[in-house]
């Protein structure tokens, strides 16, 4: 097979150079664990400071979602600390007031 019949043009080939953008997330990155981790910490602090049981439970839910969606390469210390903070928010809110939780919308209905 001769090179004269080859339709490719080596002078037109351009080498691929990936663009380096460190401030933005890459298209393959999933930021759900990071967002849920931040939400879990915010709701944990609200549950601890304002003694809101529903905030503590939402924090535990967000921490579970963050843990479930995390990758092996993620920082496990931060995820574990968020999880422990949300568990402590639930425990402390029930130690301060052992009555069952009343949902926030129950006071509006009555």
TrEMBL record:
GO terms assigned for molecular function: protein folding chaperone
InterPro entries: ASTER
Chief location category: membrane
Any one cellular-component term (Gene Ontology): endoplasmic reticulum membrane
Example GO BP: protein insertion into ER membrane
Record has Transmembrane helix as a keyword: yes
Protein location: Membrane
Segments crossing the lipid bilayer: 38-67, 79-95
Keyword field contains Membrane: yes
Pfam family, one: ASTER
Compositionally biased intervals (Basic and acidic residues): 1-16
Region (Disordered): 1-30
Official protein name in the record: Protein Asterix
Organism of provenance: Cotesia glomerata (Lepidopteran parasitic wasp)
